[in-house]
Amino acid sequence: MSRAIKPPNDTRLSEEEWNLRDTASGKLLCTIYREQPCMLLLQEGRITAASFLSKDADRIGAIFIGKVKKICPNINACFVEIADREICFLSLSKAKTPCLLNRTFEGRILEGDELLVQVEQEAVKTKQAAVTAHISIHNDYFALSLGSPRLHFSTKMSSGKKEAIHSLFSKRGLLKDGCLVQDVGILAPGLENPEYPLPPIGAVARTRLGHLTGEELQDMVLAQFHSLAAEFCQLLCTARYRSSFSQLRKAPDARETVMKDMAPYLGTECQEILTDQPDQYAWLLEYCQEYLPKKQVRLYQDTRISLQTLYALDTKLQDALSPRVWLKSGAYLVIEPTEALTVIDVNSGKWERKTNAQDTYFQINLEAAREIALQLRLRNLSGIILVDFINMVKDDHILELMESLRTLVKTDPITTSIIDMTPLGLVEITRKKVSKPLHEQIHLSRRQQSHETDQI
């Protein structure tokens, strides 16, 4: 995309605004769209990632004292009531080592049990919100959770750093046989020991810990670990004195969650972070000073034309939600979400190349694979996704296409798996359900406005 050129007689925008209108290098816009806060990543004149912040999304990560209302052995799950009489789904595979508050856990969960649960997924369509009994909290360097008591490491951490941290924990008496010592006095020195035994607590050393070196490593590791362990143990102790349906911990700031999800795309691909909201500007400055020190944050203050108009957000969001997605070659995708799954069809469209048919189909499919990986993230598609690529007969073309697709989805912050290609030539994809798809996030905003208008 070429840089926008200011018309000679156009005086609505300053020269600076016209120069900054170019989105070839990428911009993250933090604004209010239809009365709903959102973060939109613009690249090459289009939206390539989007997130609308809603009240429901703010609950992901919140910890409650829930009460088991019904056990369903046939699906290996139970239903748990949390605050505001909301019933949530709890898979018993995520409750193998729960923190029960009304009795000692002896290997099974019963109706009427009170236990700690953490919101893992918000309600999607007709499905209840999902919770887990393996609650966890984290800081920038560690994550602590109920379940396995072992010390695990980020897969992105070097083997040398893993060995150094493991050795440090062993020397300080925090580890025994690869597991954390389950003693409050050791995990959180200075915190009063509870009268009841701790449920199994495990830890994960996160990627950022691998960036520390020397003396900084030892001091930072221990300080961060003990601080988080004290917070976790205090949470478990406090739960003993609170009633059912109490919220013990709020969810992380939704803005911070979105920024971390978008972090892989905010490197060289993003030129700046731009907002027209003064309160968001102050928060973004503070956040970027801590996590993105090289990223420029700018407050848009031009009163002659709004940020939404300047970047044509209405048009760009309509394109992001359109069933038909055109590719540069002239081919196109058709994306159709249904109740059970999402179907994506690849069509040759206006493609014109004087090559043999099979090579043409292969090139179209490769281009389509790149766009599909982007659309999965942009539209936040989840569950089962079937892709009908143009039929290919060469085995090496099929293998290369599948390998390319697997490589492309690896950068997705949400777990995405390329299963296989069926005998009918349909590629099976699964993507973890975490939050509502983009079209529901925007429609939710419109419904909320309509509801508020009716009340007035």
How would you describe the overall organization of this protein?
The strands form five sheets. The protein has a six-stranded mixed sheet with strand order 18-19-20-21-23-22, covered by helices on one side. A five-stranded mixed sheet has the order 3-2-1-16-17, with helices on both faces. It has a five-stranded mixed beta barrel with strand order 4-5-6-8-7. The model is unreliable at 1-8 and 445-456 (pLDDT under 50). It has 456 residues and is of the alpha+beta class. The chain contains eleven helices and 23 strands. It has helices spanning 15-20, 159-171, 184-187, 214-239, 254-262, 278-291, 307-310, 313-321, 357-379, 395-409, 438-455; strands at 27-33, 36-43, 46-52, 63-72, 77-81, 87-91, 114-121, 130-132, 136-138, 142-146, 151-153, 175-176, 179-180, 201-205, 247-249, 272-275, 296-299, 324-326, 332-337, 342-347, 383-388, 416-421, 426-431.
Query: What's the shape?
Result: globular
Content of β-strand:
25-35%
Arithmetic mean pLDDT = 85
Class derived from helix and strand content? alpha+beta
Oligomer: single chain
Poorly predicted spans: 1-8, 445-456
Distance between the termini: 45 Å
Total helix count? 11
Number of strands: 23
Helix amount:
25-40%
C-alpha Rg (nearest Å): 25 Å
State the strand order across the main sheet. 18-19-20-21-23-22
> What composes the largest sheet?
6 strands, mixed
